[in-house]
Amino acid sequence: MQLDREGLLQKLYSAALLEGGLTGVLADLAIAFPDLPISYQAQCVYQNEFYDCAFYNHGPDVLEKLSRVESANPFPPIALNCDVSDIVQTAHTISPQEMEKTDFYDEFCRENIHINRATGIILHRQGADSAFVAANFPKEFSDEDEARANDVMRFLRPHFQGAFKLLLEVRKREVNTARYGFWLEQIPTPAFVVDGGRRLIHMNTLAEQTLKRDDALTTSPGAVLTSSDILVRKRIEDAIGRAQATSSPVGPVFLRGPGQRGSFFFVLPVRPEGQVHPSLAPFLGPRMPFLVTYFNPEDRPKTAQGVLAGALGVTERESALLQELIYGSSLREAADRLGIAYNTARNQLASVHTKTGTRSQSDVVRMGAQLLARLPGTPELGLG
Q: Which domains does the chain possess?
């Protein structure tokens, strides 16, 4: 089965924000590699009070069996000393032949499809807290399939790490849900919380500044988010109406109003149907609220490049190029604005496609815009 990499990335960050864990994302990997045992363990109970685990394509009662021989497992010590900026291949430290001579292999791996090597992603390491995802290769697993799985793991590494950091940040905010102001201020662009009638409930500092100096968005005497431009006002009304009807995010919606070339916004239901995330509880009222994030190419968020670089696993220069494209520049215009050659910009865009698994400029622009709309712009999101 062909793995939908772009779809997997979208699920990854959505799971971190809305589901409080990454287990559901791994189901897609398990389906794409039905003969490959995949495991996920987040043992972050000491400093983060968080534990989560999942096992796919393993035998029955795998967690119980693993707990009985955990002290003999040679894989965790390998992970403690590895470089988190790349995938971890246990065969580089202990050969499959040596692995087959261990007590752990006799007591656990032999019963679990003869696993004798693994490739892992270290999601988190902080004192005694750790989290990882591992692809556990059976003895009979072909070199070709192993190379394909490792390629997927290498592609997913920065995204899994970024999503897990985001997950822990969300959990920290759950401790004090009354601090909604802090949550909004982490969004690196003007952000409004409105009800279904577009009445303002909360907004961040950037949103307040936007209302003071940006003609595209205004508020009516009744504190309703609107615009002096009829076309823009209609698009705001329609977008919130669609989000309300479907309980789903809407956007990007481009304004294309006079003097506002490239401006766009997203509308995200704060309370998707059937689930209420605890960190968003302060926003909840008698009507479903919506988060409206606004992007103006003339007033770019200072942290946008850092968010893009950290979340997508691209370099700062590549994220600068992507930011230009998100805000409406053509590739040639972006190259001119950044002071680089057009061919250099083409090469950087090709590199972004490779790292994000996208096939076209419009796809990667959409992905980047969605991330800027959804992700808090904390410096810790970048993984270096």
A: 5-174 (3.30.450.80), 180-295 (3.30.450.20), 304-381 (1.10.10.10)
SS3 53: strand
Tokens describing residue 377:
């712009």
Computed from CA positions of residues 169, 294, 262, 215, in that sequence, does the dihedral angle turn out positive or negative?
negative
User: For residues 237 and 128, what is the distance between their CA atoms, to the nearest angstrom?
Assistant: 50
Tokens of 77: 């010590």
CA atoms of 91 and 8, how far apart (whole Å)? 27
**Taking residues 166-176, what's their average pLDDT?**
67
How far apart CA 16 and CA 6 sit, in angstroms, is 16
User: Each residue of 223-244: pLDDT tens digit?
Assistant: 889 888 888 889 999 999 888 8
Residue 201 host element (H or E): strand 200-203
- pTM score of the predicted model: 0.47
User: 121: which strand partners?
Assistant: 133
Question: Which contacts qualify for 173-178: CB closer than 8 Å, 24 or more apart?
Answer: 173/279, 174/278, 174/279, 177/278, 177/279, 177/281, 177/282, 178/282
Q: Which residues contact 111 (CB under 8 A, 6 or more apart)?
A: 59, 65
Question: In the prediction, which pLDDT does 146 show?
Answer: 92
The H or E element that residue 171 is part of is helix 143-174
pLDDT tens by residue, 126-160 = 876 788 999 999 988 899 999 999 999 999 999 99
Q: What is the mean pLDDT of residues 97-112?
A: 83
Name the DSSP class of 285: -
